[in-house]
């Protein structure tokens, strides 16, 4: 493959990860206005505006490996981006909560197509040495696009909550890029399936992805309310403070090769130490410095987890299993996102804790279990 074409292929793949960040962050600055507009609608439907796309990823994962044998990679990306763009833009013109839910179903289906492709295509077109570096690139550009999207959506929200949905126009140049540079190839190998053998080879990595995103959404779902209600941060500034985690992930993505050079295989241990340190820092009430430290450390853990565990899972399998590996990773990632409040509520009920910070504690325990698992794996390898 010529160098220029290979470079553009990489940008096409990275664009899938970049616009994935728009699914949730794209409308977040206008959520309060959207909820106020639909205040007379059933609240369960209003809450699903944010959570529904992640649920649809889980649904798409059930049939994606079979579909990827029959439809080419280029066409799969085109289907995903088209659904993403149409569903996103349609949300800005709807006046009914039921129509809004329909648009979120459409965007969720598109999200479900794009997520496994963003990981699987890297595993298919690039070797194991390149995959670690390129998964770091995914972290970088996802963080950049998330930051840009939040800033742009914030300005659009001042005009109207409907204008915020214009951010989904980003799908149009991404569609052109993917259609032009992603090959029109089918991955119809009999190995392209989620098998028990694949699950066994990737189990610690995909469970790790589930745990890190369960913890990540425990922070997203609770940090703002806790910090503002306790007076640690003013409501007007909590959004700015929360970006510490995003910038931390961004710079960690830039330095991921440095981490792997310094710690080698031990970087998988660093992930869980940083995550536990971040979560325990957030457990301290009323401390602004520890709040910032907690977000900083967890941002490092999240970036290292995405950059390392994705690559390790793909490397554990062969090229023909690439899209199925991507499906499995993204299934566990979305399952962690969607089930995080349920998981933490269940753990809290099991131990009889109603503490507002229990989601941090529960997440730290799960990360501690993963730390032990990876210490055992590292010991066995030695």
Radius of gyration: 20 Å
Average pLDDT for all residues: 85
Distance between the termini: 37 Å
Strand content: under 5%
Low-confidence stretches: none
Q: In DSSP terms, counting alpha (H) and pi (I) runs of 4 or more, how many helices?
A: 15
The biggest beta sheet reads: none
Structural class: mainly alpha
Taken in chain order, the helices and strands follow as: HHHHHHHHHHHHHHH
Overall 3D form: globular
Q: What fraction, in percent, of the residue positions are helical?
A: over 70%
Brief description of this entry?
The chain has helices at 3-20, 22-25, 31-37, 43-70, 73-90, 97-125, 128-159, 171-181, 196-229, 238-254, 256-263, 267-282, 288-315, 322-351, 358-381. It has 382 residues and is mostly helical. The chain is globular.
Keyphrases for this structure?
382 residues; mainly alpha
Task: Describe the protein in words.
By secondary structure, the chain is mainly alpha-helical. It is built from 15 helices and no strands. The chain has helices at residues 3-20, 22-25, 31-37, 43-70, 73-90, 97-125, 128-159, 171-181, 196-229, 238-254, 256-263, 267-282, 288-315, 322-351, 358-381. Helix 1 runs antiparallel to helix 8, helix 4 (43-70) packs antiparallel against helix 14 (322-351) and helix 9 (196-229) packs antiparallel against helix 13 (288-315). The longest helix has 34 residues, at 196-229.
């Amino acid at each position: 493959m010529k160098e220029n074409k290979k470079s553009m292929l990489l940008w096409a793949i990275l664009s899938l990860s970049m616009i994935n960040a728009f699914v949730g962050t794209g409308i977040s600055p206008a959520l309060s206005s959207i909820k106020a507009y639909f205040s007379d609608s059933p609240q369960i439907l209003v809450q699903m505006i944010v959570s529904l796309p992640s649920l649809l990823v889980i649904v798409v994962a059930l049939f994606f490996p079979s579909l990827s044998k029959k439809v080419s990679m280029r066409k799969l990306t085109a289907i995903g981006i088209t659904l993403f763009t149409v569903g996103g833009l349609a949300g800005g013109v709807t006046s009914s909560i039921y129509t809004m839910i329909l648009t979120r179903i459409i965007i969720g289906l598109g999200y479900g197509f794009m997520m496994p492709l963003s990981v699987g295509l890297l595993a298919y077109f690039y070797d194991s040495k390149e995959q670690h570096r390129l998964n770091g690139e995914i972290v970088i550009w996802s963080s950049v696009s998330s930051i840009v999207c939040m800033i742009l959506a914030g300005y659009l929200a001042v005009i109207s909550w409907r204008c915020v949905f214009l951010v989904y126009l980003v799908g149009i140049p991404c569609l052109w890029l993917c259609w032009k540079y992603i090959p029109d190839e089918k991955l119809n190998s009999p190995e392209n399936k989620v098998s028990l053998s694949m699950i066994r080879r990737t189990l610690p990595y995909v469970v790790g992805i589930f745990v890190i995103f369960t913890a990540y959404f425990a922070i997203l779902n609770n940090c703002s309310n806790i910090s503002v209600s306790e007076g640690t941060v003013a409501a007007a500034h909590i959004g700015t403070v929360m970006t510490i985690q995003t910038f931390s992930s961004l710079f960690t993505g830039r330095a991921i090769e440095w981490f792997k050079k310094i710690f080698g295989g031990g970087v998988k241990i660093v992930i869980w130490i940083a995550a536990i340190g971040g979560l325990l820092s957030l457990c301290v009430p009323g401390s602004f410095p520890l709040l910032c430290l907690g977000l900083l450390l967890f941002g490092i853990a999240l970036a290292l987890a995405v950059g390392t565990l994705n690559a390790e899972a793909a490397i554990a399998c062969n090229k023909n299993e690439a899209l199925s590996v991507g499906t499995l990773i993204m299934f566990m990632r979305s399952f962690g996102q969607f089930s995080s409040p349920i998981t933490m509520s269940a753990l809290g009920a099991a131990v009889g804790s109603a503490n507002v910070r229990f989601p941090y504690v529960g997440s730290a325990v799960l990360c501690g279990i993963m730390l032990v698992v990876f210490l055992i794996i590292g010991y066995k390898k030695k």
